[in-house]
Amino acid sequence: MAARIFLAGASGVIGRSLARQLRDAGHLVVGATRTTQGREALQALGIEAVMVDVFDAPTLTRAVSDVAPEVVIHQLTSLAGGIDPASATETIARNARIRRVGTANLVAAARVAGARRLIAQSIAWAYAPKPPPYRESDPLDTEAGGLRALSVREGVIPLEDAVLGQRDMDGIVLRYGQLYGPGAWTETPKGSSPVHVDAAAHAALLAIHRGAAGPYNIADPGGEVSIDKAEAELGWRPDVRLAPGERRESLSS
Question: What global pTM score does this model have?
Answer without folding.
Answer: 0.94
